[in-house]
Amino acid sequence: MSGRLRAGNQVAVVGYAHSALARHAARPLGTLAVDTARAAIADAGLTVAQIDGFVTGARFPTVGDHPATDGVTMVSSAWLAARLGARPRHVAGFQGTGQLPGSVALAVNAIAAGAADHVLVHRALHNPAGAYHASDAHEASGARQWTMPQGFFGPVATIALAYNEYLQKYGASRESMAAVVVEARKNGARIPWSYWHGKPLTAGDYLAAPMINDPIRRLDCDLPVDGVAAFVLTSARRAADLPHRPVYIAGCAGAGPTRPGLALHWPLDDIRTVGAETGRRLWESAGIGPADVDLPQLYDGFSPFVYFWLEALGFCPEGEAHRFVQAGGIDSDSPKGLPVLSGGGALGNGRMHGIPQMLECYLQLSGRAAGRQREQARVGLAAHASPHLGGAVVYSAEQF
C-alpha cells in the first residue's frame, strides 16, 4: 500500500453503522452485512442508488481448516453490492494484512480519481463454530513444515516470540501489560455494541488468566466474534451537503517485510525497523507529526502491539513503552493520558480488525461520541495489525 494518497484531506467519512458483536450471531454474516451497510448509507443521508463504490478487505483471519465462503464466513465487496441491489462503478478488495487502512486508501484514491462518488467501506468478521484454529491436517507442507512440527503454529506463537524478545531486551515485566488490557476493557465496557459492554476487568483478573503461549496470556488476545461495521466516504465537496460533520482523511501509510523469511517469524528488529518506516511514511503523507495527534488509536489484536506502535510512531522512545504504560501514560480518563485505547480497541470490543480504531476516530472527530465525547479531539490516528505488516490512517476534523 502506498504511503501517499491522491488527495489528502479531499475525501471524508460521512456516515457509519456497527452491528452488535456476539461470539456467534443468531443471523448469517451476510445478513448482518446487508443490514449494517443499509444503516450506514442511511446514516450518511444517502440511498443505495447513490453508492457507486464498494471496497473491503475480506480476509477471513482463522488459520484453521474453516472454509472461506462469501456471504457466510466473509463478505466481499462484490457480494455486498449485489445483495444491496447496487449498480457500482467501482468495486475493489484490499489483499494485504492491514485490511482497513488498505481499504480506506483504495476508497480515497477511487473518489479522487473520479472512479466513484460515494464509496462504502466495510469489514465483516466471523467466528467459526468449534476450535478457532482447528485442523485435521496430518502433515505440514510449504513453509509450515519448518515450524509446525516444533509447535510454532499460528499468530499467538508469532507474537509471543516478538513479545518475549521485547521483555528480555528492555527489562519489561509481564505484569506491566495488565495496564494495557485493563485500559482497553475499561473503555470497551462503556460501548453499547461491544462484546465486553459492562464487563471491565482488574489487573488481578489479567494476571490470573491462563498462559496460552508464554508470555502471552488468554487476556492478551482479542476475542473472535461475529460482527460488521461500515463507513461511507465521499469527496469533501459533497460531504458539505450531508447531515453529519465530515471527518477528513489526511494521510495513510502501509508496510510489508523488507527481507525474506518464514511468514510466522517476526523478529523484533523487523517490527522496529519497518515500523519506523511506516511511521515516517505516515507523517510525510499527512504533513504532521506525533505531537499533532490528539487521538492515537493503536491496534491491540494482541496487547504487545500497543508497545510496538507507541514506539514505531514516535510516541515513546525505543524500549520505553512498557514504562510509559505502567506509569499511567495511556489512561484515557487522565488529562495527561494519551488515549490510545479510548475506543476500547480489539481487546475491549472483540476481533474487528481495526474497526474500533477507525470508528473511535470518526465518532470523536465528528462530535458523535455522545457521553464519551473528548472535546479537544481534532486529529486522530487509527493503526491496524503490526507496524511492520499493517498500516495506519490519519483523520482530521478540519482540512489542513
Automatic annotation (TrEMBL):
Keywords tagged on the record: Transferase
Family annotation (Gene3D superfamilies): 3.40.47.10
GO molecular function term, any single one: acyltransferase activity, transferring groups other than amino-acyl groups
Domain Thiolase C-terminal: 276-383
Keyword Protease: no
PANTHER family: ACETYL-COA C-ACETYLTRANSFERASE, NON-SPECIFIC LIPID-TRANSFER PROTEIN-LIKE 2
Protein name: Acetyl-CoA acetyltransferase
The organism's taxonomic lineage, starting at the top: Bacteria, Bacillati, Actinomycetota, Actinomycetes, Frankiales
